[in-house]
């Protein structure tokens, strides 16, 4: 018997106890006998299929996910143009991407936890509303202050949509079948958002203007709100009054978590990009943030009930290792999504549209890798093989990227990115499935949310560390070549300066060498993180995917 033990056996041991039916388990009636549990397990077995209302919810969530996935990647090829039009610096462009990622990551577990009390549909509508308001602010922005405010609000809504999509699947789809059916959302996210997003962004900039990057969200926002209002309806176990809902929500924990993580991540993002790592502007928010997170952890540990995050999420070394892999996956994936198109524009001389196309091999093969893992995980009931194989392939891909330079041929470029896409795609699904298999039955929904948080928090940290390494490496190379290091601090806008220079211009040749050197530092970081994650993943032990589904919510008939 594996480390998770048999879920059925553990439940049988408690089947005569009235305490089994708590607020954390809704789809099973008491008293439960061994026969009831075996019957329930059979209904949730290999032949489980969604009912009509459940299938409609899945399709609705896939559609709603489109706008978040599109917005997360469409800006990648547009940032240099936005920085130029709004007279922003390289730091401004950096924060246009990072502000969204920060708020998206921080609010995911908070929104998921509050939805346990106030309801999934209500928090999903709240998230779509915030995403819409943020999109409006971004679309009308005439300076970076308004743009950054809009991106931050967008991030809150986007993070809520991402995490609630995961959590709602946990409410009615058994774990063994979850990878296969969640591929519907994953496919929508990957195909439309990840693959088409950068190309659409580049096309809109060249054919219209950068504001259309945000205008395009409005039809999706309207459609998403209608779908969530009409179709995504879930029944809760108990009917609490509004006053009881307020009392059961861990508001203190939410405030401590949001404030602590915000301070920590802002300081970390500033380090090496906006301020020196040893400056007060960097160290103070990091220290204050760590202190806030420590106070939050103590509050969660000693609070008797209704905590924001269950302590049992990290009950074993396998859980900690799996969450670490989610963090590393987010870091590597976003570093690639930001710096591969940037490399294409700066070094390969690609236009915004061409840069989106250049990254296509990685993004296109991200989907088959994820879907293949989804199908095989459902069929085999195993997930560790995909985690280990995914990291091994990712290490190969990032390692080969270190060879990229001004003379890299397109076939080589495409092959290396394809390898990277396959590896990241395998990890994307397998770590998610693994975390839910490792988690305790009553924690499955919050475990899915914590997976999203760890992956999302890895994204801004990945962009931040990559930005610091790129800027410092490029600055040192520029100085060595006799060029001003200030070019590295304005690297996005300087791409347009390079395009106006003759191919034989000595300044252009030297600047390209500096760009390549800076990007090489990013590829080395990605390789190191991937290697570390592979070693950590070896700590994950065998767990059973045949878990009985116990949830507070069920799809409304």
TrEMBL record:
Any one annotated GO CC term: plasma membrane
SUPFAM superfamilies given in the database record: MFS general substrate transporter
Region Disordered, residue ranges: 1-20
Major location (coarse): membrane
Presence of keyword Membrane: yes
Membrane-spanning parts: 55-78, 93-111, 123-142, 148-169, 181-200, 212-232, 252-277, 283-302, 314-339, 359-378, 385-404, 416-435, 456-474, 522-540
Name of the protein described by the UniProt record: MFS general substrate transporter
Organism of origin: Lojkania enalia
């Amino acid at each position: 018997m594996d480390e998770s033990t048999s879920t059925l056996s553990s439940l049988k041991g408690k089947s005569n106890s009235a305490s089994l039916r708590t607020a954390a388990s809704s789809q099973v009636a008491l008293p439960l006998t061994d026969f009831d549990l075996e019957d329930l397990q059979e209904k949730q077995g290999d032949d489980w299929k969604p009912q009509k209302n459940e299938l409609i919810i899945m399709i609705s969530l896939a559609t709603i996910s489109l706008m978040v996935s599109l917005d997360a990647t469409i800006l990648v090829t547009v940032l240099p143009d936005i920085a130029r039009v709004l007279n922003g610096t390289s730091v401004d462009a950096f924060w246009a991407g990072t502000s969204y990622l920060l708020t998206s990551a921080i609010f995911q577990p908070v929104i998921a936890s509050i939805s346990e009390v106030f309801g999934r549909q209500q928090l999903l509508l709240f998230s779509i509303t915030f995403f819409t308001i943020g999109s409006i602010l971004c679309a009308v922005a005439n300076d970076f202050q308004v743009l950054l405010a809009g991106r931050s609000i967008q991030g809150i809504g986007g993070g809520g949509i991402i995490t609630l999509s995961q959590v709602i699947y946990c409410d009615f789809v058994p774990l063994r079948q979850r990878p296969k059916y969640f591929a519907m959302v994953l496919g929508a996210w990957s195909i439309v958002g990840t693959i088409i997003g950068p190309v659409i962004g580049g096309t809109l900039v060249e054919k219209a203007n950068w504001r259309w990057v945000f205008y395009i969200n409005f039809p999706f926002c309207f459609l998403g709100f209608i779908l969530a209002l009409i179709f995504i309806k879930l029944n809760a176990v108990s009917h609490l009054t509004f006053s009881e809902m307020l009392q059961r929500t861990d508001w203190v924990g939410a405030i401590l978590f949001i404030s602590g993580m915000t301070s920590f991540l802002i300081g970390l993002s500033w380090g090496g990009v906006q301020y020196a790592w040893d400056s007060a502007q960097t160290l103070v928010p990091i220290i204050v943030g760590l202190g806030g997170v420590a106070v939050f952890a103590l509050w969660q540990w000693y609070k008797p009930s209704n905590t924001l995050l269950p302590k049992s999420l990290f009950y074993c070394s396998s859980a900690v290792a799996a969450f670490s892999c989610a963090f590393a996956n987010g870091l590597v994936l976003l570093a690639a999504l930001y710096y591969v198109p940037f490399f294409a524009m700066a070094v390969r001389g690609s236009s915004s549209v061409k840069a989106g196309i250049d990254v296509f091999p990685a993004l296109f093969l991200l989907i088959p890798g994820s879907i293949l893992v989804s199908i095989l995980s459902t069929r085999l009931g195993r997930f560790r093989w995909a985690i280990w194989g995914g990291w091994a392939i990712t290490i190969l891909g990032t390692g080969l990227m270190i060879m990229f330079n001004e003379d890299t041929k397109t076939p080589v470029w495409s092959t290396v990115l394809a390898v990277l896409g396959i590896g990241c795609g395998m990890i994307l699904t397998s770590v998610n499935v693994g975390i839910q298999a490792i988690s305790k039955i009553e924690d499955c929904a919050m475990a899915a949310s914590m997976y999203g948080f760890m992956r999302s928090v890895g994204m801004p940290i990945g962009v931040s560390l990559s930005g610091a390494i790129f800027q410092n490496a490029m600055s040192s190379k520029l100085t060595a070549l006799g060029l001003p290091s200030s070019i590295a601090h304005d690297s996005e806008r300087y791409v347009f300066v390079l395009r106006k220079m003759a191919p034989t211009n000595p300044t252009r040749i030297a600047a390209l060498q500096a760009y390549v050197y800076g990007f090489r530092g990013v590829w080395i970081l990605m390789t190191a993180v991937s290697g570390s994650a592979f070693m950590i993943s070896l700590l994950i032990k065998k767990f059973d995917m045949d878990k009985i589904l116990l949830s507070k919510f069920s799809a409304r008939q």
